[in-house]
Amino acid sequence: MTAEEPAARRLAEFAAGLRTQDIPAPVLAHARDLVLTTIGVGLAGTGHPMVAAVRRTVLARPAAGGAVLWGTPDTADAPDAAMVNATAAHVNDYDDTHAEGGVHAGAVIVPAALAAAQQRRAGGARFLAAVVAGVEVTARLGAAASHRFTGRGLHASSCCGTVGAAVAAAVCADLPAPRVADAIGIACSQSSGVIQTVVEGGDLKSLHLGWAAHAGIWAARLAEQGVAGPARALDGTHGLFAALIGEGWSRDRLTHGLGRDWETAGVILKPYPCCQFLHALIDAACAYRRERPGASPDRIVLRLPTPARHVVCEPWADKLHPRTPYAAKFSAPYCVAAALLDGPIGLGHFTEPALARPDIRALMTRIGYELDDDPELARGYGAELVISGATGAPWSLRVAHPTGSREQGAHPDDWVRKYDEAAAHVLDVAARADLRARVTALADLSTWCAL
């Protein structure tokens, strides 16, 4: 990219020209895994009260159908369907993560691309290319900011995902590069998502991704009809980065290695249904249980990267007493205490009965936290757990990269297991196997109807 060329134009040229034959086979396989697990966790989220409320709102007004609301026989206009499905995919905080970008790209891009492809009756190859294009853009926007969205009280997944969803929908519509650039420009004006809801323990955070998917499809539709977006909506003096995070973002990170260094391959499997900042601590807690079975910790110190502070640590009094199961997903003391007592945590730990367990509550009172300014720890979603007991030497473990990360690796079977566990909330064994087979053959499907 030259100094004069807008970043949006370069990203648009990449996306508009992308075909599945241009994508390395391992990256395509990773994208299929991402589609599979996103649909799985989305199905698991369909019964959540937040998702039910969004679905009722969408179905209460007359609109053209054409795109499926996951887990139901209902259809809606593509932007509305994408909003419901993306909310469902994120509501359990079980959706996979691009670590460097700090974004849940799949939970925005897969619902947006699938809804747009369904309404357009696009083939599987076009849908898969749209997913990869949208994930690449979303992840690069997040990585260019290096966790600075969170530091400004913003939700990176929705701020970046709105733009990525616009790209994915534009690719589904086979728009030329100038129109894709317009879609990016339009989407930047819709990028939003403040994380005060996390501080207060609310579950509105999931709707951020729903709105991002909704706005992205509308941005692509408007661009298709000739609405122009600002050329420097990303990198201008009043563009997305300047407006939302100010200084400190990397222009080069937006486009360097585009089409060669695939960010889709950097989306990591998320094994625990809670905030990504807590996964390294859960890994460490599980290691402590294995190494010192039956031990009773006296004092537990959590050392977390600085960007995690206002997500999982503050206000500390609220984190020690999460009011709802959703709030517990962002409570460092709750998740660590649960993991120390039970091992790997799952969806069952985020229910009212689990939240009321006296053993978890008692152990939480022994926990404190410290912040670590190491940028590498933040980049890898790492953390350190330090435990002192009545007997024996203090125990500590620093986990630079949690389970499922690119560095730790995840076996293809891990993605399938996660899909099966999540999708079992809605689909029986035969239906899960059938859907899995169709996603595996995604590039060969002639229309969305087969999926």
TrEMBL record:
Domain MmgE/PrpD C-terminal: 272-434
Annotated MmgE/PrpD N-terminal domain residues: 9-247
Domain of life: Bacteria
Family annotation (Pfam families): MmgE_PrpD_C, MmgE_PrpD_N
GO molecular function: lyase activity
Family to which this protein belongs: Belongs to the PrpD family.
Record-linked PANTHER family: 2-METHYLCITRATE DEHYDRATASE, 2-METHYLCITRATE DEHYDRATASE-RELATED
Protein name, UniProt field: MmgE/Prp family protein
Organism: Phytohabitans suffuscus
